[in-house]
Amino acid sequence: MRTRVNGSSATLERPALRDPAWVRWALIGLALGFLVLFVVLPLITVFAQALHRGISAYFDALAEPDALSAIRLTLLVAAIAVPVNLVFGVVAAWAITKFEFSGKSLLITLIDLPFSVSPVISGMVYVLLFGLHGWFGPWLRDHDLQVVFALPGLVLATMFVTFPFVARELIPLMQEQGIEEEEAAVSLGACGWQIFWRVTLPNIRWGLLYGTLLCNARAMGEFGAVSVVSGHIRGLTNTMPLHVEILYNEYNFVGAFAVASLLALLALVTLVAKSALEWKWGESLAGSRH
Amino acid sequence: MGRGHHASGDGGVSGECHHGLGGGSGQFGVRFAGQKLVDALVDLPFALPTAVAGIALSALYSAHGWIGSVLTPLGINVAFTPLGIVVALTFIGLPFVVRTVEPVLQELPPEEEEAAISLGASRLQTFLRVILPALTPALLTGFALAFARGLGEYGSVIFIAGNMPEVSEIVPLLIIIKLEQFDYHGATAIGALMLLLSFVLLFVINLLQAWMRARHAH
């Protein structure tokens, strides 16, 4: 990530460390070959398969009512889950980096939890809690509320899975920035909100945008967790990735890859925006991601 | 139930370690045209929804696909076999290894390599005795991260795996099947084991990262 050029240029100036040309090209060839085989070809396949019956078949597949409702549902779920996680991420990062309190390391571990748990298990937790036979199932049924196999379940599962993205991006960044500027603001008489809007937010805006981008990409593309809580009701609880699965299993390959191509485009746009942020604002983004 | 899954996770990830090393060396030694494009592409498996990756890989490696039509006449069946799971997990784990090894490789002091060469070591010896040992913590961390992700991976695997019970059925799919049959006890039992495994891996990853930091410190 955030490439540092000094490593390579240092090597170029050190003749003793220059490998023979064939070694360098063999290594680059190996790396590029692997990348083409495992990353570039799958990406091209998505668009090739989506368009292989022609452009009109492609747009017909996208204009299908079930596809349109899947697109709407995906946008709706992301429109709820991403802002909630954005606010949570900022609040959590703010608390962790600017204050001292007991249980801090527990909070950090909890934030990381969704990354280390299988998405299927994340979804299962909500079925066990809110499903018909789950802990709150009978109560929900008595009050005529449905969480699992409905929009609330989809939003909850998506929120859980995309929980860490914003906070994880902001914590190292805000740790690096320290609290001197906030302290200066306090000493000049600023109140909490003023400090946040005038000092902290401008300092973290690019990191925040970066984290939100990743969070959104995952929210729209999430499959495993959403698959467990959705119930796969066509036109009602199918998000785009789930609709892709249904079409693919019905051997409607053009339809499946047409919807998939939209998701692939989203991934490409995310990567371009992410790379642009890194190249332009690399200095004001955090040092490491893992 | 986890046997097939384990083996596949392992294969996929060690494939990546080779690549992480290759890709990293490429970036370390030289600059080449399109390097930024390659840099961005390495993150594609992070950004591409898993279901999209799954159907794309499955289409590529099926008997009529671009790669499958080359491999099938050679007697190599990838799609709908455990080998397909290895391919999917290799795709998914790629960025974990590259992004863990890359920064360590970039910060490796060139003086150590120069010292090795001035003492008469060949480049291969320098690589094996100087560079590789310095990378070991990062390689293991990348391996563990990719392994942890591979264990729980669902979307990219189920399309290409074929999902034959006891042959190419992964644990997350088994959980979903049990949930669909309202066998909550069965699903929870398997889920609890998976959670336990995730926590063990998380612990190992934390230890490895501490080792990495200690290496960096001196």
Work out the oligomeric state of the chains in this entry: heterodimer
Number of helices of chain B: 11
Terminal residue distance of chain A: 11 Å
Count helical runs of chain A: 14
Question: Which word captures the global form of chain B?
Answer: globular
Distance between the termini of chain B: 44 Å
State the secondary-structure class of chain A: mainly alpha
Mean pLDDT of chain B: 84
Main sheet overview of chain A: none
State Rg of chain A: 23 Å
**Low-confidence runs of at least 5 consecutive residues of chain A:** 1-10
Percentage of β-strand residues of chain B: under 5%
Strand count of chain B: 0
Q: Give the overall average pLDDT of chain A.
A: 87
Tell me roughly what share of residues is in helical segments of chain B.
Answer: over 70%
Secondary structure: number of strands of chain A: 0
Structural class of chain B: mainly alpha
Note the run of SSEs of chain A as H and E.
HHHHHHHHHHHHHH
Uncertain spans of chain B? 1-12, 22-28
Task: Report the major sheet of chain B.
Answer: none
Structural description of this entry:
The complex is a heterodimer of chains A (290) and B (218). Chain A is mainly alpha-helical. Chain A is 77% helix and 0% strand. Chain A has 14 helices and no strands. Chain A is globular and about 65 Å long. Chain B is mostly helical and 218 residues long. Chain B has 11 helices and no strands. In chain B, helix 6 packs across helix 8 and helix 10 packs antiparallel against helix 11. The N terminus of chain B is likely disordered.
Key features?
heterodimer; A: 290 residues; mainly alpha; B: 218 residues; 0% strand
Secondary-structure map with pairings?
The complex is a heterodimer of chains A (290) and B (218).
Chain A: H1 6-12, H2 21-51, H3 55-63, H4 65-98, H5 104-116, H6 119-130, H7 137-142, H8 151-162, H9 164-177, H10 180-187, H11 192-221, H12 224-230, H13 240-249, H14 253-281
Helix pairs in contact in A: 2-14, 3-14, 4-8, 4-9, 4-11, 6-8, 6-12, 8-11, 8-12, 9-11, 10-11, 11-14, 13-14
Chain B: H1 3-29, H2 35-42, H3 44-47, H4 50-61, H5 68-71, H6 82-106, H7 110-118, H8 123-152, H9 155-161, H10 171-180, H11 184-217
Helix pairs in contact in B: 1-6, 1-8, 4-6, 4-9, 6-8, 6-9, 7-8, 8-11, 10-11
